[in-house]
User: What shape does this take?
Amino acid sequence: MLYQTLSKFFATDIGIDLGTANCLVYVRDKGIVICEPSVVAIMDGTKEVLAVGADAKKMLGRTPGYIKAIRPMKDGVIADPEITEEMLRSFIQRAKRFAPRGRRMLSPRVLVAVPSGITGVATRAVKDCALRAGAGEISLIEEPMAAAIGVGLPVAEPSGSMIVDIGGGTTEVAVISFSGIVESRSVGVGGDEMDTAICNYMKKEYKLMIAEPTAEKIKIQIGSAYPSDENATMEVRGGDIVSGLPKTVKILEEEIRMALQEPIVSIVEAVKATLEHCPPELAADLIDRGIMLAGGGALLKGIDKLLTEETGLPVFVAEEPLQAVARGTGIALQEIDTVHKAHSSAR
Assistant: This one.
């Protein structure tokens, strides 16, 4: 009770989008201060942390045997608690530097966004990691709700709003009304699955071995979900599976669209299933309001056009979609005491 009283005056309020691919940190009254890959480089055997975030990601696929670059999050949940703790500790300590001096005295109050439908065990893992990493008080908010708040949807109104948050490890689909999630789906498909699909395609069609960072560049540069007049090309370098020697091949946008078909279909089916189970009154609201896309996957070229064709609803891509969840935690931090009571009692 004493901590809760003091924390209102002396603790830093921090919102965290603990994503599979990226971790974003929001400091109250300062905005998003950290946006870095969810990667940690460690010394094999001792688990000594060598780098966190962007510096660690540069080591993926490039390190000697005694250094490992690890992504401790998988499908939106913690896969390696110990490494996740180290990553959070680094980000929390860095975030505290942005707070006013008077608010660095106590451990920060932290609001973490988690996938909808997360299990009790996974919830406990998030809270434990955050506490051991230096948080003083933990609250949770569901990712689709945070994303909807972050993009400015009128979540408190008695009418329906729909958000599709395509992250690195999961895609969160939700229909929201009266500040609550009425219908939702969470599928383990996102940017990582797309990268893997591209790696598999290059291996199968060109006998070319590429790493996930290269696949991510391909996805960003010429990846698409819907046909366009422009069929862009890209040169890709990797290792020839047969000879083991370096090789360069030229690929087409159309090929990558075909490679991404399976993960994209999974996302479309999740959206359609959510709409099918949505109450008729809220579904009618969506005819005018449409669907809002957030998350890094929303930047995939043509994903909005494909969803419009498949659902018959207008689809919009949020401004700065990668920051939607983090911004939502920041807005929710303005009412952190209310959020803490609601989510702590619920979980």
Remarks:
- DSSP finds 13 helices and 18 strands in the chain.
- The chain has three domains: 2-145+324-346, 158-189+265-321, 191-261.
